[in-house]
UniProtKB/TrEMBL annotation:
Keywords: Coiled coil. Residues 101-148 form the Recombinase domain. This is Recombinase domain-containing protein. Gene3D superfamilies: Putative Large Serine Recombinase, Chain B, Domain 2. InterPro entries: DNA_bind_recomb_sf, DNA_bind_recombinase_dom. Residues 6-33 form a coiled coil. GO terms for molecular function: DNA binding; DNA strand exchange activity. The lineage of its organism: Bacteria, Bacillati, Bacillota, Clostridia, Eubacteriales. Pfam families: Recombinase.
Length: 175
C-alpha cells in the first residue's frame, strides 16, 4: 500500500466530507421527490436513487480506508520522535535523528548556491559542526541530508527546496 503523509490524509478527509455533503444534497433531492416536489419521471428517480446508493457505498468504503490509515499513522506517530530522540521502525530498531534545522537549512543553501558535496563537508568541518554521531562530515553524509525527505516532513525545509536540490543532484551526477 502506498504511504500517505498527514497532509494527504487531511486532504482525503476533506474529500470525504465533500462526498458526505453531496450525499446530503442527494438525500434532500430524493426527499423532495418522495413528497411530490419537483416531480420527475420514474427513470430519472431510479437513476438518482442508484447514484445516491453508489455515493453512499463509496463514502462508507472510503471512511473504512481512512480510519485504517489513521490508526496506522497514530501508531507510528507515537514512536517517531524528533529532537534527537530515538526513532523506532516496525522492528523496534532505532537511530538518532539529526535535528539541527539551522545546519540542515545551511546545507541546502550551500548546495543550491553551487557548492559541491565535498566543499559543504569541508565548510561544516571547518565550523566544527559535528554529525549526529559526533563525527566529521563527508560527501556521503552531506548527500544523505540532501536526499532525506524527512527534512520536508519535519518542516526543516520546504518541498520546493527539496525538489530543486534533488534535481540539481541528478543533473550534476550526469556530468
Amino acid at each position: 500500500m502506498a504511504r500517505k503523509t498527514i497532509k494527504r490524509l487531511e486532504t482525503d478527509l476533506k474529500n470525504m466530507e465533500f462526498l458526505y455533503k453531496q450525499e446530503l444534497e442527494e438525500n434532500k433531492r430524493l426527499r423532495n421527490l418522495l413528497e411530490g416536489k419537483n416531480v420527475i419521471a420514474q427513470s430519472e428517480y431510479d437513476l438518482l436513487l442508484k447514484d445516491y446508493e453508489h455515493m453512499k457505498d463509496m463514502r462508507d468504503n472510503y471512511k473504512i480506508l481512512y480510519d485504517n490509515l489513521r490508526i496506522r499513522y497514530d501508531g507510528l506517530k507515537d514512536s517517531t520522535v524528533i529532537n534527537n530522540q530515538t526513532i523506532k521502525n516496525s522492528r523496534g530498531a532505532g537511530r538518532k535523528a539529526f535535528d539541527s534545522s539551522d545546519v540542515i537549512k545551511r546545507i541546502y543553501e550551500l548546495y543550491i548556491q553551487g557548492n559541491s558535496l565535498k566543499e559543504i563537508a569541508n565548510t561544516l568541518n571547518g565550523s566544527e559542526i559535528k554529525t549526529k554521531r559526533g563525527g566529521t562530515w563527508s560527501k556521503s553524509s552531506v548527500r544523505f541530508i540532501l536526499l532525506n525527505y524527512k527534512n520536508v516532513e519535519n518542516e526543516f525545509i520546504d518541498e520546493d527546496t527539496y525538489n530543486i536540490t534533488v534535481k540539481l543532484l541528478n543533473d550534476r551526477k550526469k556530468k
